[in-house]
Give the backbone structure.
Amino acid sequence: MIRSLLSRIGSMSVVLVGVSLITYAFVFLTPGDPAYTILREQQQGPPSDAQVEAFRAEQGLDEPFVVQYASWLGDAVQGDLGISYYRSEPVTSLLLEYLPNTLELALAAVAVSLLLAIPTGVASAVHRDTWIDRTSQIVALTGISMPNFWLGYLLILVCSLWLGLTPVSGAGTLGHLVLPAITLGTGMAAVVTRLVRTSMLEVLDAEYVDTARSKGVRERLVVYKHALRNALIPVVTIVGLQFGFILNGAVIVEVVFQRPGLGTLLVDSIFIRDYPIVQGVVLVTAVAFVVTNQLVDLAYVALDPRIEPGGRGVSANE
């Protein structure tokens, strides 16, 4: 158990270091001088050469790439992600300020997707090759094909501007959360619906399901107690992986709805070349993605006790 835990921590550390190195390299190689851009934004005018050189020396931008990255990585390991060039605030504090809104949106989007996908996928499998099945597949295909930003603007137009049901932008209330969550969760719902249908079709043809039916168990119990539990095992993988993609998709959705979060913070920082914030947001997103994958493995054990931590299943002879 301890060896497995240490192996997981080691793998996570390697992935995170790799992500941070690639991000830092892209930032370092990006054309343009962040010192000039930041000073121009702060002064609302072009800075002098002396001001630019002083800023570069103060922030360590005149150091070689290896020195800059080693210094940043050493501080990041201790929880210090540096100081924002433009805001002059600790990046860690800014991330903790904006992160709750993004997590709220991501969790709400997952909830929306599961509430839509699981009943629809089960109904589609139970009523295979009927109009219910065909309709759900068409809706799922539409959801996968529809860009988030287009759906977001469409919902704003209809629900906010025409009907006046929800606020156009912002955060803080349930009304501010509904449209962004639907926008972000629709694509994931489409993916999960198709997977639930496929998984349920396989399980419903299993021998133990036929045995339960032959014993006179009600069909609803057969579907939701015996079949659905086992059908959810592959779904957990997709939901875990999709959560990482949802955090990335939140960037677009937060910009569309002008919702304060890591997405808007990242986009604003890219435009003004506030690189410490860019690196911090990317690192936090990578941590969330990696941790989610590890939690997926633990969820396997909860759904099927025959699966040991680490992914090794129990054979029929054990």
